[in-house]
Design brief:
single chain, 292 residues, alpha/beta, Rossmann fold, six-stranded mixed β-sheet, 12 helices, 10 strands, 42% helix, disordered C terminus, binds adenosine-5'-triphosphate, ABC_Ni/Peptide_Import, transport, cell membrane
Length: 292
Amino acid sequence: MTPPLVSIEALSASSVREGGTPVLRDVSLTLERGEVRGLVGESGAGKSTIAKALLGILPETIRITGGWLRFEGRDLLTMPSGELRAMRGRDITLIPQDPQTALNPARTIEAQLTDGLRMKLGLRGTALHARAIELLEEVQIREPDRVLRSYPHQLSGGMRQRILIAAAFAPGPKLVVADEPTTALDVTVQKEILRLMRRMQERHGTAVIFVTHDLGVVAKVCDSVTLLYAGKVIEAGTTADVIERPQHAYTKALIAAGPRYDRPGQGLEPVPEAIFRQLRAELAGTAAKGAP
Ligand SMILES: Nc1ncnc2c1ncn2[C@@H]1O[C@H](COP(=O)(O)OP(=O)(O)OP(=O)(O)O)[C@@H](O)[C@H]1O
């Protein structure tokens, strides 16, 4: 039987910097080929830690204390670093949060876009240039020749994010990790970028881990969702199930808190303090269960 594309089993991690504070608590999730899964939670929930673990770029100050992280059945945590490096940027790519800082201000778009194509796909010369043009056309950038000659500061945030999306899909990856790819953009541009991401994902059949704090974004682009709080999975399922029939009080409160793309103007209730008390009690229960 083919293993899922990504399989995370009982993954636990702690922060060395914060005196051993748990960062992930027994997190399990799977991602099938072509599936788009939202990883949702507020700041500090552990979303980026999971994303970084998948890309093999966890900082030394975060230590994995248990569990498995498999990609096509192979454990990424024990994979030799050379293999992991070869896989990163080819089989697993990243769309970063902030298009402003992700691009080098001193190099043209063409120089940056073609780096990956040269290294990962071995393209050279006119074939390289032609592929760069094609990529920009695919993300609906007009005048791609001019854009390739530009420097990042000459382009808008939305244009820069389109370029990073093109770069992430260029090597034909099996998995794209999108780390809050629309947070730094204004609302109208956000919607365009979400539509573009979904179109690219469908066209290429790529699986996506979509990191976001916004359930509205999940409703728009994700097939499934895993909701985290303080490193623990609170609720997971298909997007339709979780949004239409949330089981946990925290999920219900987040949905009420909005913003909801499908119900503009509704919501915006803050999450009640009683729900955070309940979450903290549940976390204390987890810690007690895990203790020797
Ligand atoms: N480099 C690091 N070293 C040690 N601990 C870290 C590091 N980065 C984050 N942490 C801790 O790990 C926990 C989870 O952080 P993480 O960045 O994964 O959350 P997040 O859900 O992605 O939040 P955000 O939306 O703010 O990015 C937090 O308690 C944080 O303090």
